[in-house]
Design goal:
Elements (H helix, E strand, L loop, with lengths): L1 H12 L2 E2 H8 L3 H13 L3 E7 L7 E6 L5 E7 L3 E8 L4 E8 L5 H22 L6 E8 L2 E2 L6 E2 L12 H9 L3 E5 H12 L8 E6 L3 E7 L2 E3 L36 H4 L1 H10 L7 H9 L4 H24 L3 E5 L1 H18 L8 E4 L6 H18 L4
Parallel strand pairs: 4-7, 7-10, 11-14, 14-15
Antiparallel strand pairs: 1-3, 2-3, 4-5, 5-6, 8-9, 11-12, 12-13
């Protein structure tokens, strides 16, 4: 227990002296010294310089031996597979992007090989071999059904529907593989280093090409019986067609429900109706923010649509916090957030805090690495 506490503290704080480690753990100096010697002999910690600027002799600093294990985080979209490699401290040491049409024949037949190619590219960038990897976590749209092992709610990734996919990925990568919903991974990243730190009950609403949610209650991610908790893009709402047979739609915007109202394609169409032409949702919202009159109308309608969906989630879950992420809230910024907050008045009886996501750079990969690192540390840090 002392070994693990010390290792966790070194991960959280970075290099520490023997005295600092003793103070943080409550251990005596001799016990802390024995502990560090034991962990160094096991290859888990190493000496790294000295602490300066303190009275008396400079004290030896100790840090996690981060190179003892590495993990991979992978993000899958219909257009590309991105892989990053991190050492045991969480420092990213390699990255590779592989263009891949997830709906094409190549991806459908060779999905495990394509994922392995992306990971191998990241390993080469890090100067590592495959045997350096301990865990791989893959973030995809949809969710893995725990009863069947089939990826559901992601019809636009046909190459990912095999019942044996996870086994095939394990074999292709040579590590245990976890396949996790991409929005769930964003929520874990928000909880780790973003807006949801210190919150045990919150919902992340992700508005991008599709719409989804991640629900955390009592500090635990809610997945549901089929892994589909949070698939609110299909949620029936006033003004949207019903999403009948939604799992068969190859285009996530071809069905119905919430995503037909507030996803990126819906925002582009709404802006066009008000005379604002744009190739993508961020540009449409940027032009709306700069266009009095028509732009105000676009922002007000986007806020109304988002608030209607959010109110339905709040009524069921009653979270302490709602975090808005994805390119639509990010592009709309604080002005859109304020409009959504105003629209929620009277729609939802509970009034949780409403905040924008604090993560700008690859939140899915951040969440994937967080999950992979937690699993790897459980194994590598086991000194029993």
């Amino acid at each position: 227990m002392n070994d693990r506490a010390a290792l966790d503290l070194l991960v959280a704080h970075g290099p520490l002296t023997r005295t600092q480690l003793g103070e943080l753990t409550g251990l005596s100096k001799p016990t802390a010294s024995q502990l560090l010697a034991r962990l160094a002999a096991a290859g888990l910690v190493r000496a790294t310089g000295t602490a300066t600027g303190r009275p008396g002799p400079n004290a030896q600093l100790y840090e996690i031996n981060a190179s003892i294990a590495h993990v991979a985080g992978v993000e899958v979209t219909p257009l590309q597979i991105t892989a990053v490699i991190a050492d045991l401290s969480g420092t990213i040491v390699g990255e590779h992007r592989l263009a891949s049409d997830a709906t094409g024949e190549e991806a459908t037949r060779h999905t495990p090989a394509l994922v392995a190619a992306a990971v191998d590219g990241a390993l080469r960038a890090a100067g590592l071999q495959r045997d350096a990897l301990h865990r791989t976590v893959i973030g995809t749209p949809g969710a893995l059904d725990p009863r069947t092992g089939v990826l559901r709610y992601a019809p636009h990734l046909p190459g990912w529907q095999s019942r044996s996919l996870r086994t095939e990925l394990d074999a292709a990568l040579g590590t245990p593989v976890v396949i996790e919903n991409d929005v769930n991974l964003v929520a874990l990243a928000e909880q780790d280093r973003g807006t949801a730190q210190d919150f045990d009950d919150f919902v992340l609403i992700w508005a991008d090409d599709g719409i989804g949610a991640a629900i955390v209650l009592g500090g635990t991610l809610l997945r549901g019986a089929t892994g589909g908790a949070g698939e609110i893009g299909y949620m029936p709402l006033p003004g949207a067609p019903l999403a009948r047979g939604a799992e068969t739609f190859a285009d996530p915007d071809a069905g119905g429900g919430f995503q037909r109202l507030a996803s990126s394609p819906a925002v582009i169409a709404l802006a066009a109706e008000h005379g604002i032409s744009a190739p993508d949702a961020p540009t449409a919202l940027a032009r709306a923010l700069a266009t009095p009159g028509a732009g105000d109308a676009v922002l007000a309608e986007v806020a109304r649509r988002l608030a209607t969906g959010i109110a339905s989630v709040i009524a069921v879950v009653d979270p302490e916090l709602v975090v808005l992420g994805g390119e639509v809230p990010h592009a709309g910024g604080e002005r859109l957030l304020d409009l959504v907050s105003d629209e929620l008045t009277g729609l939802a009886l509970p009034r949780p805090q409403l905040r924008l996501s604090a993560l700008d750079d690859s939140p899915i990969l951040i969440g994937a690495l967080r999950t992979a690192l937690a699993d790897a540390r459980e194994t590598v840090f086991d000194t029993a």
